[in-house]
Amino acid sequence: MATIDEELSQLERDIRQLKIEYDMYFGGGRKRPPNEVEWRIELLIKRYSERGGELKFAQRFRFNNLSQTYAKYKDVFRKRVAQREEGKVQRHFGAAAKAIEAERARTQPEISVKEAAVAAAASATPPAQAPASSAESRGFRMVCSEPEKERQKVDQLYDAFLRAKQEAGEETSKLNRAGFNEFVRKTTKDLQAKKNCRDVEYVVETVDGQVKLKALVKS
User: Which of 72, 96, 111, 130 is deepest in the core (most CB within 10 A)?
Assistant: First the structure.
């Protein structure tokens, strides 16, 4: 018989799998919604909602976070299903592949500071060219030019990034403040050198349940 911790881990995997399969469904990669995965999640949530007294503090905290993440996803899925039924959603045939790639990136180890800086510099664009975020996006913005002298700003950015990942149910064990500070410092210097700018804007946003950190050049 599975332990409580094992069942909570299974619940976490099922919630992650549910998002992937719903993205595939909305993208045209599968014909039906993932009802079986959703049924398993509902069953576990109902079981531990009724047996909350059996959970230790850490287990109850983890269960509540997973329940909140599932409730948030479920609300998004419900709205998208309604839009699909009303014919308001356009089909993007590459969505399924993107969903799988996103999950693969989520489960791989965190990229190094150097790799993160290169990725941020390569994707940086002036605000006028920055892609518009979806209606589900919400985020934190911070502008800096000398991160080593603006530690309070960098700390606020780190806290916002960490909080967003926790709320989205993403892995945060590999995050640390020192590595993040170095990433911001190096990314800022790289962009200033390559784009001949002074200010760099960092944006933390959650789009379709996934947390993104962007570095944008300020004109």
Answer: 96
Burial of 26 (0-12, 13-18, 19+ CB in 10 A): buried
Beta bridge partners, 215, equal 202
Give the number of other Cβ atoms within 10 Å of residue 156's Cβ.
15
Cβ contacts of 73 within 8 Å, gap of 6 or more: 15, 18, 19, 22, 209
Per-residue pLDDT of the chain (219 residues; tens, 9 = 90+): 788 889 899 999 999 999 998 888 888 787 888 888 899 999 989 988 888 788 888 888 889 899 999 999 888 888 888 887 776 544 444 454 455 455 544 444 443 444 444 444 444 444 334 443 333 445 789 999 999 999 999 999 998 888 888 888 888 888 888 889 999 999 999 988 888 899 999 999 888 888 889 999 876
Mapping DSSP onto H, E and C, the string for 67-82 reads HHHHHHHHHHHHHHHH
All structural domains of the chain with their residue ranges? 4-102, 110-217
Q: How far is CA 110 from the centre of its chain?
A: 13
The pair of three-digit structure tokens given for residue 86, joined into one six-digit string:
């009303």
Cα–Cα distance, 122 to 214 (Å, whole number): 11
Structure tokens given for 207 = 């789009």
Residue 206 host element (H or E):
strand 200-207
